[in-house]
Amino acid sequence: MIEKLEQIKKEAREASNNSSSLEELELVRERFFSRKSGEFTVLAKGMKDLSDNERKKIGQKMNEVKSEIEAFFDHKKNEFEMKVWEAIAVTEAIDVTQPKLPTPGHGHQHPMTIVHTELEELFTSMGFTVLDGPELESEYYNFDALNIPGTHPARDSQDTFFIKNHPEWVMRTHTSPVQVRAMQKYGAPLRAVVSGRCFRNESTDASHEHTFYQMEGIVIDRHISIAHLIGVMKELLRGVLRKDVEVRLRPGYFPFVEPGFELDMKCLVCGGAGCGACKHSGWIETLPCGLVHPKVIEAGGLDPVEWTGFAFGLGSMRLCMQKYGIEDIRHLHGGNLSFLEQF
Ligand code: FA5
Fold first, then answer.
1. CA-CA distance, 3 to 216, in Å (whole number)?
2. Which residue of 65, 119, 131, 241 lies most exposed, with the fewest beta carbons within 10 A?
3. Is the model's pLDDT at 194 over the cut of 90?
């Protein structure tokens, strides 16, 4: 039996040395130690037929051989595991000499976001609700409900993008459609602002974009007058620009207000001398406004005899330009970081 044990030890050492992977080594371990048919296990089962003396002597030898074989296996297993770690160390090595990557800077708000947030805070402090409206709007809300029927020449001044095969949908040309939507949804009295993107099919220049922002405001109540309108407009400009600005009010035609005004402000970019931002006139068209037309109040589901109101459509990109002295509107959507990092 001693000879047989020595033979098993020799074969186990050779087999483990010759194994070429952890899986193969596991099969070698099975060959000698599997519970049913392992060569060492079968030999150990024969111990029961030995005399007490022999069993003591052989038992000791068996324990020695078993420990030796297990040591061969463990040694070989360590070899394989080391190879795996070496491979990982090569592929995932950290190069301590590599220069440090620049730390990404902190982001900040876009100037338009700053202006809209300030405007919304200002209006909520005056009791206005902040609403939202769809950018893809129905032709009805964008034009018809605002007293601009299909043949009305006012449609020409707001040439828009229609949707292929869906002439009833347009990319909204202004935020005014929310006037009617708000009246229909919330009734009267009402005080609301809505800021968002508008779209027009027009060439761009220093003061025009095809995609630009407006903030609409609407107040519906009893006995609303032009005095209320002008009071709120002045508060708006003072709140955002943080100074008194020179304004002029002149008649303006919009089919959805009566009377309608254009509230212009003296250009802060050039101080009124004339520049690209004010089309060299010294004045900026920023705040068209007026008293809500009775037909619009009717479209909102309200009685125009009982309810009156004012509305305005602030060109918030132009206001942003005035606030920060930006001479060309196209900088705002240009994505140029050296421009944006100034805010
Ligand atoms: C309107 O859009 C009306 N809905 C405004 C209104 C609302 C009047 C409520 C009365 C009552 P207008 O087309 O003028 O009006 O545009 C309003 C403002 O948006 C302009 O004064 C200007 O500041 C800005 N704006 C208009 N077109 C552009 C453009 N292409 N690029 C940048 N800003 C523009």
1. 101
2. 241
3. yes
